[in-house]
Amino acid sequence: MNGQIPNPDNFKRKPPNNLSSYQRTINKQMDIINILPDNVANQIAAGEVVDRPASAVKELLENAIDAGATTIQLIVKDAGRTLIQVIDNGCGMSDSDARLCFERHATSKIHRADDLFAIRTMGFRGEALASIAAVAQVELKTRQHDNELGTQLIIEGSDVKEQAPCSCTPGTSIAVKNLFFNIPARRNFLKKDSIELSHIEEIFRRVALANFKTAFSFHHNGRLLYDLKAGNFAQRIAGIFGSNFNQRLYHIEEDTDPVKVYGYVGKSEFVKRSRGEQYLFVNGRFIKHPGLSVAIERAYSELIPEHTYPAYFILLQVDPQRLDVNIHPTKTEVRFIDEQTIFAILRAATKKALGQFSLATEIEFNPSTEIDFTPAPKGYIPSQPKVTFNPFYNPFKEGRTDERTGGPSDGTDFRTNGLSDERTERIFGLSDERTERIFGLSDERTERIFGLSDYPNIRTSEHPNIQTSEYPNNPNIRTSEYPNNLNIRKSDNPNIQFSRYIITTMKSGVVVIDQQRAHERILYERLLSQHQSGHAVAQQLLFPVNCRFNAADSEMLSEIIPELRQVGFVIEPLAQNTFVVTATPPDVDANDLQSLLEKTISEYKNNMMQHFNERDKSVCISLARQMSVRQGTTLKAEEMQQLIADLFSCQVPNLSPSGRRTMFILSEQDISERLKG
Predict the structure, then answer these.
(1) Residue 111 shares a structural domain with residue 149
(2) I need a labelling partner for 249 at 20 to 30 A (CA). Which of 61, 396, 502, 549 fits?
(3) Which of 34-38, 336-340, 458-462 has the lowest mean pLDDT?
(4) In this predicted structure, what is the pLDDT of residue 485?
């Protein structure tokens, strides 16, 4: 080195020429971490807490509950886009607390880390109001009960615009206006009003169910949707879901050291295909716990069909020290120390309720211990019952006798009011010839009307494209998928029904058809065709049927009434949350109309996200699923034949409306492969 000090710059690697501008900036500037401004940090935090109007509703309602309110009002406009206002009569806040509650991590619920394991309140993170104020225009009015004046605070995007004394009622009123006004991208991602309102209503139902001793009201665009009085748990369920719910639930109660269980579980005959009416609460907090849901549903094993779910409304009380609720920003997920024990207790309590009350007809929401007994009037002497008989009747006497006189019969039948066959025919006109003339039901016409001719019994009026029983030129059948395989064999052997499946034969092999999925496809295409053509067939009801729904379902039903009319329903609003049905499609059972519409609305809610811009298809899919033949229903031979014929006349016979396979073909080669060895 010749005693010279080396220049350190000679050892520095020069960056290659192909580095990006960002990488060159890093090489030139080593300090790249910055502290975000408060308004940006608050907007980022708000994204975790407030993702849609329903999230803000949840935080505001829980704050009102924690304030000890006994009356809470929720006022919403335009599904929360324009206004969300919560008014309560709780404890209120002082001037300094009203200003401090909008700061991040500001809370009155916890003071040290140990408090996280003894939480008995709803909100405790101190993020809610700060997050809401960061993405909306907020106006707060609050007053403590001992003070004469309250405080008014106006905030826009985390900036305090005004704070001044005001005159207001005791409690707190907080109005959230123009949500996401400063984040247009977030506002554009909101769904249409009906969807956002359904989320708000679900949050409202959860809070109202858990706090049944508090009175709630809910207004949307000036319309009263809910007006719930304080009462017991059963009355709150009936207030939200309708008074007819008292016929659908069993009482459940169990008191153990690990957990106390109280509530109601649904009867097996009222199960649904969605989990809409499943509410589980722990220490007054709504939770989603897959393990506990499985515990309840396992109690229904062998009682309900596959892929159906019971309703339940269950309150659990657990020691807060054996429960962790601080694992998710929305606080709907929890962890239990005794999870396996609680699982077993909940499952056993549900099975006990199902067994104990299986013979009961309904829940007594207001049980009475009085015996309904009306005493007889004073001086009343009951008369002795009289028995009449024919003293001349002799069952061992030969020949036909008149039971009135014991003498020979005059040709009339005493048991048919003296109407001989000749007189019966003369009075009622029920001879074979007149029956045919009056009703037009000769053997030939019966065969033509009901399709009871030789297999496959296709109604040519409904399927004009099908020319023969062998389907040679049916344009509705996808020959690319089933080439030359749709010629159903005429055979003396009947179709076979095995559980939920129909087994028949084709030229290429054995066909196994899921009868319910096949019927869904048939009904769906029929309803959709009627809807698009505007030629729906309506069957007038002899007596109109009144159907009552909860507020959320009423809103949804009002939205789809035009689609229901297009497929044959005649339904009109009658009163608040009540509708009258005067006509239905011919395939609908009027005796089960309430349940049919409830399940259709539930299915529609699930389908409308998938068919967002195709409301007519969503309604037809929902109706087809509810009107289809149930799994395991025994079908007659002619019904199976008609089902097969109608299925293969569909445009998409191989898939149900929800995209599931309706059938599969087992070819001779497949059978041979399985029998090898």
Answers:
(1) yes
(2) 61
(3) 458-462
(4) 40
Tokens of 501: 């499946």
- Distance between CA atoms of 158 and 137, rounded to whole angstroms? 9
- pLDDT per residue as tens digits for the range 561-571: 888 888 888 99
List Cβ neighbours of 222 (8 Å cut-off, separation of 6 or more). none
Which has more pLDDT, 5 or 230? 230
Total domain count for the chain? 4
- For 387-429, the DSSP string reads ----TT--TT-SS-B-TTTSSB--S--GGGTT--HHHHHHHH-
Is there a single domain that holds both residue 305 and residue 429?
no
> What is the average per-residue pLDDT within 334-352?
89
SS3 content of the chain, % helix, strand, coil (to 5): 35, 20, 45
Q: With contact defined as beta carbons under 8 Å apart, do 601 and 615 qualify?
A: no
- The mean per-residue pLDDT over the stretch 274-283 comes to 88
Q: What are phi and psi of 516, to 5 degrees?
A: -70, -45
Domain containing residue 66: CATH number: 3.30.565.10
Treating both helix axes as pointing N-terminal to C-terminal, what angle do 515-533 and 637-648 enclose, rounded to 10 degrees? 60
Residues 637 and 512 in one domain: yes
Q: Is the pLDDT of residue 553 over 50?
A: yes
At residue 163, does pLDDT exceed 50? yes
pLDDT at position 103: 81
pLDDT band at 358 (very low <50, low <70, confident <90, very high): low
Q: Which of 551, 497, 538 is nearest to 216 (CA)?
A: 551
Mark whether 138 and 179 lie in a shared domain.
yes
Beta bridge partners of 479: none
411 in any annotated domain: no
Q: What does pTM read for this prediction? A: 0.63
Q: Check if the beta carbon of residue 196 is closer than 8 Å to that of residue 79.
A: yes
Residue 307 falls inside a structural domain:
yes
Instruction: Say how far apart CA 358 and CA 426 lie, in whole Å.
Output: 52
Two tokens, residue 302: 């062998």
CA distance 161 to 531: 54
Last residue of a domain, one of 195, 226, 257: 226
Provide the sign of the torsion angle of the four alpha carbons 58, 63, 66, 68, taken in this order: negative
Residue carrying structure tokens 């048939």: 522
Q: What is the pLDDT of residues 616-630, one digit of tens each?
A: 888 888 888 888 887
Do 292 and 438 share a domain, yes or no? no
DSSP string, 573-601: EEETTEEEEEEE-TT--GGGHHHHHHHHH
